[in-house]
Amino acid sequence: MAEPVRYEVVDGIAVATLSNPPVNALSAALRAGLFDAVRRAEADPAVAGLVIAAEGRTFIAGADISEFGKPPASPTLAELVAALDGAAKPVVAAIHAAALGGGLEVAMACSWRVLGPKAKLGLPEVKLGLLPGSGGTQRAPRLMGAAAALRLMVAGEPLDADAAVAAGLADTVVLGDLVQAARGFAARPKPQPVSARDEGLGDRDAFEKEAAALAKRAATEPQIADCIACVRAAFEKPFAEAVAFERAAFLRLLDDPRSKALRHVFFAEREAARIAGLPKGTQPRPVARAAVLGSGTMGAGIAMCFANAGIPVRVIETDEAALARGMERIRGTYDSSVKRGSLSAETRDARLALIDGAVGLDATADADLVVEAVFEEMGLKKQIFGHLDRVTKPGTILASNTSYLDIDEMAAATSRPQDVLGMHFFSPANVMKLLEVVRAKHTSPEALATATEIGRKLAKVPVVVGVCHGFVGNRMLARRTQQAERLLLEGATPEQVDKALTDFGFRMGPFAMADLAGLDIGWRIRRATGKRAPVADALVEAERLGQKTRKGYYLYPEGSRTGVVDPEVTALIRRVAAQEGVEQREIGQEEILDRLVLPMVNEGARILEEGIAARPGDIDVVWLHGYNWPAWRGGPMHYADSVGLLHVVARLAAFAEATGDDTLLPADLLGRLAAEGRGFASLKAD
Ligand code: 3HC
Ligand code: NAI
């Protein structure tokens, strides 16, 4: 492998050029190379100063996250930063692109930071449940003032080049030759190190005000509380002591399960982007124009996704009236964003200009990708796919947004099953980030690559899944829904069930969610499929359809969207339980949580066994971005690993025995991993 740091001296200035693809993370080898460059420059009497420059798409993306949890190798990042700070000769950071986390900490330990126009400076550690752990909480406040530095850290979002200079974090933006300009700085006398610039901390009251405004986040996110404490230490402790204080906080956070979960999410999201088993060199097809069939709840949102990404899209309906309603739905959604101030009127107009409407499927003739979002009826969908096959161009990708139905059956209605797949968006489609890309039996690698690439262009997180009823997300959700209903029969109240999940970190519990969506939706599906849910059915029969009738699982007083407990529901549940012959009892919060979550994990294990998902991390990404699973819990499969699979297996087996419900029996894969003392994380994709 090539050396990660190239060192050369020209005209009395040394330049250390970093090259550690893909993102110049501060691996042990990069740290050693850079440390060595500092020592060489210091030792060489012919060298007046050192420039640190980098090649590639980032300056330095930060500490190497994949090294976290392994024994630290010397020189550590802290030692490297200390060497830069204490160097007798000036060191200049020539930052052409992103300097993040430890990358910015390295730059802040230099004498100057000289930026190219594409530079971005940020401290994103909080997103990983961490804080800047190599002097960042001490140097950023000395460069930009404590209040602004705290803002930068807790936001985790980078500043662009001009903003970084305006904030005092960097010295100048260079439009020409960046390294040449940095060399000019390196020839100057060394200024006072940033660590000694206490006057830069600024007004303590302004900092305390900023800190007080963060009280709510600080109460639930330990890394926010620690950021505040560390910046406060900059006012109260000598520099070296404050750095030690920061280090201790960083190490504590590194060991916190919440940070471990967030780091798992970081890698799982990136891994999900790689399609398992795709032949090397598979090229996605270009998509210049899209068409969306149906402009109801989903179709309208999906069309907006294309327009938001700058891709012209045609919305197709069965008649003019339905089309007019759909276009109005789209316009209305954009208008409310303009009213809220999250979208400018010009942007709205530009996006609307990319959406046109038509009646009849023949209007798909010039589309490169068609997303079908009509009623959930197999007969209708097959007829539509047959029609699309006749009128679309060869190579057009034909996608269905179906929630549950068999994509293979739709593909069989065409003469080109290789171009057919699922693109399953989540409601509201213009907001939720998940896109399940459903690979059917004959889907070609190109079609799959095209759908995932388009997904990314639409700012979605695409996850490839296989064909089965409900794919990954809804199939697992069904297990939770089943248990939630069952818990009511056994004696839990709707608010106890909801609270178990909101305490866990979900924004809403299943019953508050059902009231919001409307209870008639599930009821209609159950009627069509011959299934029953005695409590839910009884509520619908009592005309309690949720928020729209101001009563469902809860009561909604006039004008309120927050439900209150309704004694009538308690009585109704008791009555239904008696009819069903289920004895009611007190159920503790812990059991409720386990009954809701562990059956999902069990279904996730079956999904892995069947190869419907390629990796446990893919399932986690589905739940994070499709159902707002709390990120700091890492997703259901990571959660199962964190509580231990032996425990999961024992709980499921006990539930199966107590309820007589065989679906709760631990899946083979789960049992096997638990017996071998392994976790889901130990499974490797093909
Ligand atoms: N450590 C290890 N690997 C990293 C990494 C890091 N800090 N940052 C990115 N990578 C890897 C990714 O896992 C990915 O690997 P893969 O190709 O094998 O999947 C590859 O680099 C490319 O990453 P992206 O796909 O994310 O590339 P983009 O170009 O879309 O984004 C980026 C680049 C903006 C730098 C983005 O990767 C990113 O946000 N990285 C994390 C930045 C960060 O959080 N830094 C702080 C680290 S913690 C720290 O520094 C602690 C210190 O304070 C002590
Ligand atoms: P919807 O009932 O709101 O909209 C369906 C639209 O399709 C209607 O406007 C109808 O006029 C139109 N339509 C019917 N036949 C058509 C045809 N032949 N050509 C063109 N348009 C036609 O339904 P919704 O909720 O948008 O669902 C659509 C699909 O998306 C279904 O398959 C559903 O399972 C799936 N889905 C729904 C989600 C949701 O939360 N509503 C989430 C994810 C997927």
From TrEMBL:
Pfam families, sorted: 3HCDH (PF00725), 3HCDH_N (PF02737), ECH_1 (PF00378)
Organism: Falsiroseomonas oleicola
InterPro entries: 3-OHacyl-CoA_DH_NAD-bd, 3HC_DH_C, Enoyl-CoA_hydra/iso
Top-level lineage group: Bacteria
Protein name from the UniProt record: Enoyl-CoA hydratase/isomerase family protein
Pathway info: Lipid metabolism; fatty acid beta-oxidation
Coiled coil: none
Keywords: Fatty acid metabolism, Isomerase, Lipid degradation, Lipid metabolism, Lyase, Multifunctional enzyme, Oxidoreductase, Peroxisome
Keyword Isomerase part of the UniProt annotation: yes
Principal location class: other
Subunit structure as annotated in this protein's UniProt entry: Monomer.
Residue span, 3-hydroxyacyl-CoA dehydrogenase NAD binding domain: 290-466
